Write the structure tokens for this entry.
Amino acid sequence: MESNMQDGKLVIRLKGKIDTNNAADVEEQINAIIAQAGVKDVVLDTSDLEYISSAGLRVFMRLLKSLSSLEVVEASPEVYDVFDMTGISEIMPVTKRLRTISTEGCELIGKGGNGAVYRLDPETIVKVYYSSTETLDKIQASRKSAQKLLALGIPVAIAFDVVRVEDGYGLVYELLDCKTVGQLIHEDPSTTQHWAHEAAELLKQLHTTEAPEGTFPDARESGHRWVEVAKGVLDEEQQARLHRLYDLMPAKNTLVHGDFHVGNMMVQDGEIILIDTDDVAQGDPIIDLAGMELTYGFITTDDQAMMTMGMTVEEMKAYYEAFLREYYEVEDEAILQRYAGLRKLHGMVKLLYGMCKTDRLPQEVKEQHIPAMRAGLMQILDAMGL
């Protein structure tokens, strides 16, 4: 039995079997290690535990009563099932060991701000998250968000498995022989208007669907988070102005997706299915529209557009123009200009956030572009009287 300290918690690695024959000895050893460490927060690593009986479960229950916190991690499917069937997983955190997969040789469907999507086989795809920015907790939260959206009638793909992929994590979805909206438009540009209409209808469905308060995060917090991440390149007055922008944003219980673009829309049996629910929130639709302005307004090369959207820049811009007409359904130029200004304003805040957050851009590139972005953002605030 081995142990070490990680993030203030005592991690004890269990091996072999825990049954009637050795449960008392195992309990004695665990208690001795805990006493020597002098801590009350314990993690039991069961990656090498092959079997546990009811006698072993009673050891865990007694430990739970004597500690401030106890969690079980890396349980094999067989061991996890024992915790799950007995209901113990409801009273203490128990994490199943993740299977490991490889995307070597798999078709790359597209890349986005927080990960890349690959087709594993004709029936499944996997979204692989960038290990440097996306935590397992956030990925698990995305899976739960998808379940909540489905219950509200939103067409989303449900991830049935969380997996390890090299040094990061991924979500596996069952989607049969489907393609993204971007790929379909690239294959047949004459379908642009059709898919623009379908996407606009889906986003309007999201923006008019109410969820009970607190079901998803408050979208205003997304804006505040953008500002907080970018505060290193903003002075105190600039930070205050941007935070005020989100303080003044109205609270709403309607849904926003947070990353609504053609690379996150898979088409199955003629229906658009959303695959990315990492940033679903409740609030003002401008959060979604700002993200779209950023996505479609700042991609300037065909290589980048094909990589992220599955379509060329020309196809992307034609789609976006058609989408905006379908979404807004207004002809008044003054109103449309107002909408465009708001999209650009919030889009630039999100762009600044993205530039500061990513570690995939060289520092010299950031230093070259961020000052101009910051100046442009302040000019828009001035022009809009904000």
Remarks:
- The longest helix spans residues 333-357.
- The chain is about 45% helix and 20% strand.
- The chain has a mean pLDDT of 90.
- The radius of gyration is 24 Å.
